[in-house]
Write a structure and sequence with these properties.
four-stranded antiparallel beta sheet, 0% helix
Length: 287
């Protein structure tokens, strides 16, 4: 953000069948990445390094206590039973984010990934594993990794030139969807949960990021940057972008929403439990 411009964040939801957008709230300053809780009553978002719970009835926000983890980015996900939140907290010592879990109602964070940088994106439907994007010294590139939800040894699933990011499980746990620039532009890919059968799913003249599979498994939402607006491996804020939908069985996509946003808009899965509504954040800049 430019120092002379102020940002207004607009928390919205959209009906994926008719495209109707509903503004839920406006915030002075930056909020990012809403998650929908499984009961459909709340959205979890991040702001200024902290997490907040937004009540969809009262339209009011309340902070979530994350203990010492006060430098959280927009890579937060909910456990399948919604008892925990997985977060990526940036260390004050080396500035690198690592993955932690914290009770959804607040509490002490538990470290899962001793190594950084690690950017969390997915939690397996059976609750046993977390998937994240990480860069490690042996490769120097960003790849997809998984780690047991109760801690343990991480497992590398991808190893291709360029960036692999945004890993997220399908509702049946059989696949991990992600985005990769290995074909020259950033496109949506899918692989088996063990890393096998890595398959390109979009072939578009845009750079596509952060695939999110609907709870019923039928649709995939993702954000698309115009070709030439960004480098393939970058997903900045303050761009004219689209939220697109495609079938999880392949096929052509369609534009659901055009907006000013990008980074922070839908970094994490923001589907409602009914698979009909999608939450997101758009932005306004003022001098």
């Amino acid at each position: 953000m430019g120092t002379s411009r102020q940002v207004t964040s607009i928390l919205e939801m959209v009906d994926v069948h008719n495209g109707e957008r509903t503004q839920l709230a406006r915030f002075d300053g930056l909020i990012e990445a809403p998650n929908w809780t499984s009961d459909g009553k709340r959205l979890i978002y991040n702001r200024s390094g902290r997490l907040y719970s937004f009540d969809l009835v009262s339209r009011e926000s309340a902070p979530i206590d994350t203990g010492f983890a006060t430098r959280c980015n927009n890579d937060h996900v909910l456990s399948p039973d919604n008892s925990l939140i997985g977060i990526s907290h940036k260390s004050e010592e080396d500035g690198l984010p690592r993955v932690y879990t914290v009770p959804i109602d607040g509490g002490k964070p538990t470290l899962l990934t001793p190594l950084g940088p690690s950017y969390l994106h997915g939690w397996s439907p059976d609750g046993r594993e977390l998937a994240y994007c990480a860069r490690r010294k042996h490769s120097g590139q960003f790849d997809i990794y998984t780690i047991p939800a109760d801690g343990g040894v991480e497992r590398q699933l991808t190893d291709c030139p360029g960036k692999d990011d945004g890993p997220e499980y399908s509702p049946d746990g059989k696949y991990i969807w992600f985005n990769s620039e290995r074909s020259g532009t950033m496109q949506i890919w899918r692989m088996r949960a063990d890393g096998g059968e890595q398959t390109q799913m979009t072939f578009e003249e845009s750079n596509n990021w952060f695939p999110h599979v609907s709870p019923d498994g039928h649709l995939v939402a993702y954000i698309a940057y115009r070709l030439g607006d960004v480098a393939p491996g970058d997903h900045p804020a303050n761009k004219h972008v689209e939220i697109r939908l495609m079938s999880s069985k392949e096929g052509a996509s369609r534009t659901l929403v055009r907006l000013f946003g990008g980074q922070g808009t839908i970094n994490v899965n923001s589907w409602a439990p009914d698979s009909v509504r999608l939450s997101f954040v758009s932005y306004l800049l003022q001098e």
